[in-house]
Structures are given as structure tokens and as C-alpha cells.
Specification:
This is WWE domain-containing protein. The chain is of the alpha+beta class and about 70 residues long. It has one domain. Strands 2-1-6-5-4-3 form a 6-stranded antiparallel β-sheet, with helices on one face. The model has no long low-confidence stretch (mean pLDDT about 95).
Length: about 70
Amino acid sequence: MAPYEWVYNAGSSWAPLDQYTQSKIESLWFSHGACWIASPSFGGTTVYVDTADLILMCSGYAYTIAR
């Protein structure tokens, strides 16, 4: 499989997610799935990721994600 990187929109720039969160999102992406992930990128907070809509929700905020 080719290398990949998942990022989220952080204001006017894109920020990379940690490797654990990227791995979980990559698995979801192949099935257009959605689930809750305890993300180290967000201090271990549980975030909701929906790969069909390409969004990550954390503490009431929605972030666009991209591969």
C-alpha cells in the first residue's frame, strides 16, 4: 500500500494527525465508516470521525479531514 497522511483543517492550514489516529481513519476510510476514536492529536479526547463526510468532531467543533 502507498504511504498516506491524514490531516485536519486547523484554521488557515492543515495539521497532520498522529500515527495512531491516521491508522484508525485509514481503516474506516476503506469502508466509508464512522466511529469514535481516542485521539492523541487532541490530547486523548475521544473524537468522532466520519470518513463518508470527511469530518472529525471534537468538543462540538467540526474539522474537515483530508487524505
